[in-house]
């Protein structure tokens, strides 16, 4: 038996399933989009607030996606005092805790917004991640439907602020009370049917993904997806299924007024809760039209449900209607990119008194992908840095190169000094090419003695610089290159960058 030591096995680099690394382009596109959304929220008078990623699990409570067990649907751990904590599932439940804990110090109505990561311990899949960003706005302490209507109008304004034109999006609006009335009418009233009602609502919520037939399967025995996984259905009989399908497609035929009239006369005529929800929908519809947010922006849609249990009144959803290429270039409908509703019971759990609340959440990652593929984000790329090359490696020379770099940075110009192995100068040029650096700064011994710097326009000289391997070849090329005194470094770099910007602008205009 060999006594040689076994070579330690290398650690395998693995990204956890359902999580993703983010590129500079995605981060910058997200920042650009969030800034535009924030501007709309601020215009409506909302203020920022931030809550931690962890909450005590009982604060999230029964409003988890599938169960209130600590590790079902959420990522949980036990603190050293044996209390369960969970990564937040959304941004709404933590806000409810924040409001209740600080109730005596806040001004009602409390109007806030916040962006942050949320986490879901669910099966990952294409476009379905366990960590993603949401951007929420909420009004706590306003009982009237005008607060809900304002949320819908703000969602419409956000879509247009992001460059999505009318006709390419819609804000769909419904009311949980109406849905409760419909469910009562088909025999699903009472506390004993609470879980079954939630299953039905989640089935209806999948209309944009699975279509009418997929929803019908989820209302019945269940549905098998493309991977073979089976989702158990609500177990409704054929008559119950048909009445629900008729309801969710009703507003598509005959318009809003006809839908209201038919709903009131037949489907929910015997449900006081359903009729109350219908009146709220009518009032919201009046507010939309009074503020000139008509059907081309916001419309009543009985298929809008929202899957979470805590909604108690109006619910709404922002949907992209435009056909947009996905990452593979396939033309798809992105569907819902955000939504919300009224959740009057969420804060009240902590308070022992009614606290009305309404709000909505934007799925940042999903909406950003759609906007990028529409060409609405990331068009103005951050310029690559000016590269200060390293010709000499002694510490005095490095000090001079660092000084040039800092002078550019202090003037507001993005710059970096080459930090790799400077032995092969051609490698520095290759690095600059890969980085899309617009300009290279060069100073060798001869230039140092004369107190000058060579500045090369890498955009102009890109082709000619290919294959240059040493300092001598570099000096022979001298393409799109100028020599200036050290004191003129910043001014000349600014001038060359401005000329490059002008050329790019002409290219975008077709050379005009």
Automatic annotation (TrEMBL):
- Principal location class: cytoplasm
Enzymatic reactions: tRNA(His) + L-histidine + ATP = L-histidyl-tRNA(His) + AMP + diphosphate + H(+)
A GO molecular function term, named singly, is: histidine-tRNA ligase activity
Pfam families the record matches? HGTP_anticodon (PF03129), tRNA-synt_His (PF13393)
Q: Which GO terms describe its biological process?
A: histidyl-tRNA aminoacylation
Where are the annotated segments for Disordered?
Answer: 1-24
- Name of this chain's protein: Histidine--tRNA ligase
Q: Which gene encodes it?
A: hisS
